[in-house]
Specification:
The complex is a heterodimer of chains A (about 550) and B (about 200). Chain A is built from 24 helices and no strands. By secondary structure, chain A is mostly helical. Helix content of chain A is about 60%, strand content about 0%. Among the domains of chain A are: about 140 residues, no CATH class; about 140 residues, Cyclin A, domain 1 (Orthogonal Bundle), CATH 1.10.472. By secondary structure, chain B is α/β, with parallel strands linked by helices. Chain B has one domain: 3-Layer(aba) Sandwich (Rossmann fold), CATH 3.40.50. Chain B has nine helices and six strands, in the order βαββαβααβαβαααα. Chain B has a six-stranded mixed sheet, sandwiched between helices. The chains are: A mainly alpha (about 550), B alpha/beta (about 200). Chain A: It comes from Eumeta variegata (Bagworm moth).
């Protein structure tokens, strides 16, 4: 306890060194003056400490993590003693068998020496209890490979936080067993549910796919030379077949799932974890940025995708050796203000098409407005009263995406696979419908773009909208060579600054927010007359209906 | 431009249920090393090894996947580029054998049509715990017209043979396998000409 108090005063000293105004500081947030203000002050102080060159003292880490976890649970109003009983029930639960089997397979595969050999037996048992408890706590997530590593690191922190003499005593062991289990599970809960984005570990890891895509965009913004090089290598290796997945993915996937557990030396790793737990998941992407930045020169010298993969072996060593220097880079990078925007774009897109009867399993929390639009699909453009909750950029994105998103890839291999009906007749009907919608969207977009031109706004698409499922694919072209998809330039993306968006805002007052079909019909402007007419399309369609039914190139 | 240290590049993929020993097979092949304390594969990983076949240096880029079901969607994007796929089950675990059918369907859905496949029954050193007979393994392989082998990463049985056979089968398919002209082969394999032509034909 003395040591802990000493560390507390140590921390306080550091905090004063950091130039913060003096104030009470203790192990527990708020000290005497408990409440929200006290906690906020404590959190702020801890964030500063985590950013100092030495980071959070090792023996203080456990307290920090468990306080954060505690706080999360009490804020959620969880009755922990009851939850604890449910999680740690001695008797087997119906779902346990399958969960337990996977957990059992992974207990010795944590890559952590604490869980190997005879000595590791006890630790493995503990790990198993905790992983099972978490799986019972959150049945939707259950157990995901990689949790074993996360839990192993939490155990290690716990282990290091206690003095050896204390550990040696038997009474301590029995006393601590329950406490330890609690600590574990609570930190796991906090990490998975409060810190990491939703869908990282459950439901086909959709949240993770979205984050990987968002990160590729971020890379293009922050390290454009590197990102461009990687994109080029991918394309060169691709040879038009869509065979080469994005080059950063194999690594970012591991990093985001294990929180860098296998890539950083322990001390640096725990410092990154401190930052993640205190500041949230954007630290994960910042760390990835820092790593790519570190490896930039090495990767730029690779001339093929294959050379890139070969050179990453040396990259692992370079990152490992960078250690604290890497943490300093992460701290220096600060924050990612563009992240929420990038994420919402990709979260929205990565989701495979849902069967109409099923409610969406994954709900992006912030963009309910966009979501309802998705559900309504193109109907959005036919009604006047549709919400004006999003800007025109989003509408353009929706117009291009709503139909495109549902279109099966050329070879009919959808990620959703089994869930899709394989009835060819139904597919054909669906196809015809989609083609029709696509055509409608094209008309609407053409009209909208023409209108933009009429009011003096340039027509080039502005937002960073990109359907990452369509990246690298050629545009959909009809049999007569006419482009059916979104307006030229919106896929693949053109990276531009946000100035366009601003100029759009200035022009907002001049026109309606909603692109409405009815409005388009009533508008007798020159641009309207010059654009492709809905009626024309209808007529054209009906005249062709008899002759061909299904002519999409395959 | 520096000289290439290999003549051909083959991309292989290892799939199968969790815990059947995919990573162990890969480590035995690439590092000739076996340990049970590997880290479970998270998402996807790869190893690179260069072998020599028929006087050609062949670089193998071998992709290893996580077996847990929820990773399937995320790992399928790596199927398409694979020229050879090793489908692994555990001879001591019947379920992993039953799932072979599911994995084959996955290959059909996501991999290249002309991908070379091979089924491996791993852990054949654990004869006393065997749950799937060799005959059943052979039967399912025959049924699908796929090569089959029983292996043991632990006892180093058939591991190198399996990779060599798969690589040879791919080599046979490439232009380089039939023609002695190595320069031509280099381009041919990396570009997969039949596929590219097929696609171009589709689009017009």
């Amino acid at each position: 306890m003395e040591r802990v108090q000493k560390s507390a005063s140590d921390v306080e000293g550091r905090r004063n060194l950091a130039g913060e105004r003096g104030g009470r500081f203790g192990l527990r947030p708020g000290g005497g003056a408990a409440g929200e203000g006290g906690y906020a002050e404590w959190l702020h102080a801890m964030r500063l400490v985590a950013r100092l060159p030495a980071g959070v003292p090792q023996h203080f880490r456990k307290k920090l993590w468990s306080t954060l976890a505690d706080r999360h649970l009490s804020a959620r109003g969880v009755d922990w003693p009851a939850a604890e009983r449910a999680c740690f029930r001695g008797t087997a639960q119906p779902d346990d068998a399958e969960l337990g089997a996977q957990i059992l397979k992974d207990l010795h595969r944590t890559g952590c020496s604490l869980f190997c050999g005879a000595e590791g037996r006890e630790n493995q048992a503990m790990l198993r209890r905790v992983l099972l408890a978490y799986a019972r706590w959150n049945k939707e997530v259950g157990y995901c490979q990689g949790f074993n590593m996360l839990a192993a690191i939490i155990l290690e922190v716990m282990d290091k936080s206690e003095s050896d003499s204390l550990k040696a005593s038997r009474i301590y062991f029995f006393l601590m067993k329950a406490k330890t289990n609690n600590f574990y599970v609570q930190v796991m809960i906090y990490l998975v549910e409060a810190v990491l984005p939703e869908g990282y570990f459950a439901d086909d890891l959709r949240g993770l796919s979205a984050d990987m895509a968002a990160f590729r965009d971020l890379l293009r913004l922050r390290l454009p030379r590197l990102a461009h090089h990687m994109d080029q290598l991918q394309r060169a290796s691709d040879a038009g077949g869509g065979v080469e997945p994005p080059l950063p993915d194999v690594f970012t996937m591991q990093w985001f799932l294990t929180l860098y557990a296998t890539w950083l030396p322990r001390e640096s790793l725990l410092r990154i974890w401190d930052l993640v737990l205190l500041d949230g998941n954007e630290v994960l992407l910042l760390t990835a940025l820092a790593i790519w930045d570190l490896l930039q020169e090495r990767i730029l010298s690779a001339r093929t995708a294959d050379e890139y993969y070969s050179c990453m072996g040396g990259g692992v060593r370079a990152v490992w050796e960078a250690g604290d220097a890497l943490v300093a880079r992460v701290v220096a990078l600060g924050s990612v203000p563009e992240l929420p925007r990038l994420r919402s774009l990709h979260r929205y897109r990565v989701a495979p098409p849902e069967a109409p009867t099923q409610p969406p399993l994954y709900q992006p929390p912030l963009h309910t407005a966009m979501q309802t639009m998705t559900k309504k699909g193109l109907r959005l453009f036919y009604s006047e009263d549709e919400g004006d909750s999003s800007d025109d950029g989003n509408k353009l994105a929706l117009a291009t995406l709503a139909p495109l998103q549902m279109i099966p890839r050329r070879d009919d291999r959808l990620a959703a696979g089994d869930r899709l009906s394989l009835d060819i007749g139904a597919l054909k009907r669906q196809y015809a419908r989609l083609r029709e919608r696509q055509r409608q969207a094209h008309v609407i977009l053409a009209a909208a773009c023409a209108r933009h031109a009429a009011v003096g706004v340039s027509t080039s698409p502005t937002s960073l909208t990109v359907n990452n499922l369509l990246l690298g694919k050629s545009a959909i072209v009809s049999s007569r060579g006419r482009r059916l998809g979104p307006p030229p330039g919106s896929v693949p993306p053109t990276r531009q600054t946000d100035t366009k968006v601003k100029s759009e805002h200035h022009n907002r007052g001049k026109r309606n927010d909603t692109i409405s079909w009815k409005e388009e019909q009533n508008l007798k402007s020159l641009s309207r007359r010059n654009s492709v007419k809905w009626k024309d399309i209808k007529r054209e369609k009906s005249s062709r209906e008899g002759s061909k039914s299904f002519n999409r190139p395959r | 431009m520096a000289k290439k240290t290999y003549d051909l590049l083959f991309k292989l993929l290892l799939i199968g249920d969790s815990g059947v020993g995919k990573t162990c097979i890969l480590f035995r092949f690439s590092d000739n090393h076996f340990t049970t304390t590997f880290i479970s594969t998270i998402g996807i990983d790869f190893k690179i090894k260069t072998v020599e076949l028929r006087g050609k240096k062949i670089k193998l880029q071998i992709w290893d996947t996580a077996g847990q079901e929820r990773f399937h969607t995320i790992t399928t994007s790596y199927y398409r580029g694979a020229m050879g796929i090793m489908l692994v089950y555990d001879i001591t675990n019947e379920k992993t054998f039953d799932d072979i059918v599911k994995w084959l369907r996955n290959i059909d859905e996501h991999a290249n049509e002309d991908v070379e496949k091979m089924i491996l029954g791993n852990k054949c050193d654990m004869e006393e715990k065997r749950a799937v007979s060799r005959e059943r393994g052979e039967a399912i392989a025959r049924e699908h017209g796929i090569r089959f082998m029983e292996t043991s990463a632990k006892a180093n049985v058939n591991i190198e043979r399996a990779f060599n056979e798969l690589a040879e089968a791919i080599l046979d398919k490439t232009a380089g396998g039939r023609e002695p002209d190595a320069d031509h082969a280099r381009i041919a394999v990396e570009r997969r000409p039949s596929r590219a032509q097929h696609q171009r034909a589709c689009c017009t």
